[in-house]
Amino acid sequence: MVDLGGGQAAANPRHIPLSGPLAAALTRGYHLLAMSGNRTRVAADWTLDALLPRQGVQLGLVRSWAVPLATDSPELPHKPRGPEGNPQ
């Protein structure tokens, strides 16, 4: 299963080749089930992405500094640091 974004995808469940919106729905359903958490947020993002232009989907609800890229505990929010290296 490969989700290419939008309504484009390719899947081959049970050796039945699929492409297009049907494969996209199947692929996204599979990925939602495979997630350990935050399924509601991801499903909402995918729904908005299908219905709205890109600017409408990127609402900026989460600040960029709150999403750690490399940390031992990604579930904890990151606090921005001031010039001295102390949390603000």
Protein architecture, described:
The chain is mainly alpha-helical and 88 residues long. 35% of the residues lie in helices and 8% in strands. It contains three helices and three strands, in the order βββααα. It has helices at residues 21-34, 39-51, 54-57; strands at residues 2-3, 9-11, 18-19. A three-stranded antiparallel β-sheet has the order 1-2-3, with helices on one face. The longest helix is centred in the first third of the chain and has 14 residues, at 21-34. The radius of gyration is 18 Å and the shape is elongated. The chain starts with a strand and ends in a 31-residue tail after the last helix. The relative contact order is 0.10.
Q: Which stretches are poorly predicted, pLDDT < 50 over at least 5 residues?
A: none
Distinct helical segment count: 3
Helix-strand pattern: EEEHHH
State the separation between the terminal residues, measured CA to CA: 44 Å
- Strand proportion, as a percent range, falls in 5-15%
Shape: elongated
Give the overall average pLDDT.
76
Compute the number of strand runs: 3
Alpha-carbon Rg, integer: 18 Å
Class from secondary-structure proportions: mainly alpha
Largest sheet: 3 strands, antiparallel
Strand order of the largest sheet: 1-2-3
User: Helicity range of the residues?
Assistant: 25-40%
